[in-house]
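Sat 14:20. Reprocessing the chain from the morning session after the first attempt stalled halfway. Input below, unchanged.
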Amino acid sequence: MLIHTLLIHCPDRKGLIFQITNVLFNNNLNIISNGEFVDKENNHFFMRAELSGEVDAEKVCRELQVVLPAEAGIALEPHQKKDIVILVTKEHHCIGDLLLRVKYNDLNANILAVIGNYDLLQPLVEQFDVPFHFISHEHKTRQEHDAEIAQTIQSYNPDYIVLAKYMRVLNPDFVTLFPNRIINIHHSFLPAFIGANPYRQAYERGVKIIGATAHFVNNDLDEGPIIAQNVIQVNHTQNAKDMAQSGRDVEKIVLAQALKLVFADKVFVSNNKTIIF
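Finished this time. Tokens:
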């Protein structure tokens, strides 16, 4: 039996859970797991449920829309792998980790293609029988280059775009095309050390921990909603290069953790933060 995930968010009010579960019961659906959260500060309700049974998604969503507040967001989708396109530059550790995880079914995704602004990683990617598109940024404006990449991405119609150490800032027009669908790994524990050379910044400040942050991309540099973070300890004997080498392991683990959450439909974006079940 195919499992479906139901995601609901709306203004909070009395009786929501009863009204939702009543619709599910009347459609002969069984709730396998369920979680709810109320953001009391904003009076907003969030719910994620896994359902079994014969699901008529259009009918269920229509009936839920009737009993829920008019502003309700409702999604009911079957459990299935997400289609992704990955953007890369030169560093191999994140893309290599993702290719291996997908090959051995450790990530709920299909990698449709990898796009790079250098061709350095093409041999690695093609070892996994994944198409690689080399789209050079040289002699192009940022808008021209991003438009070429967007056109290639749209030909695959992916669910998500993953920036696996893609070292270019995307322009607002590009980001607008894929709202809350671009996931980036940033090589610092945000909001510290935003922008370029965070390990150099960390070294110069003499920090005792370094980390990585996976977040959705918006048009504020490295300030999109955070999905996952982690840290490791460092000390005064390590220079910026040493810290960067240690940080690579954290980066690939944090990126994989974030993608597992997103691909399992466990993440809501609410304003500029995430609600994670």
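The first strand starts at residue 4 and ends at 11.
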